[in-house]
Amino acid sequence: MSASAITMMVIGIVIIWGGLIASVSHAVKVARKY
């Protein structure tokens, strides 16, 4: 494993988790409105 491959893996994981957290928080905000 080269350093660049590990970096890309970490960035990918952060993007995936960031998207999940953003979608969940958005769903919670929408649910609270109604």
Automatic annotation (TrEMBL):
A Pfam family assignment: MaAIMP_sms
UniProt cross-references to InterPro entries, sorted A to Z: MaAIMP_sms
TM annotation in the entry: 6-28
Top-level taxon of the source organism: Bacteria
Assigned keywords, A-Z: Membrane, Transmembrane, Transmembrane helix
NCBIfam families in UniProt: MetS_like_NSS (NF033493)
Name this polypeptide is given: Putative methionine/alanine importer small subunit
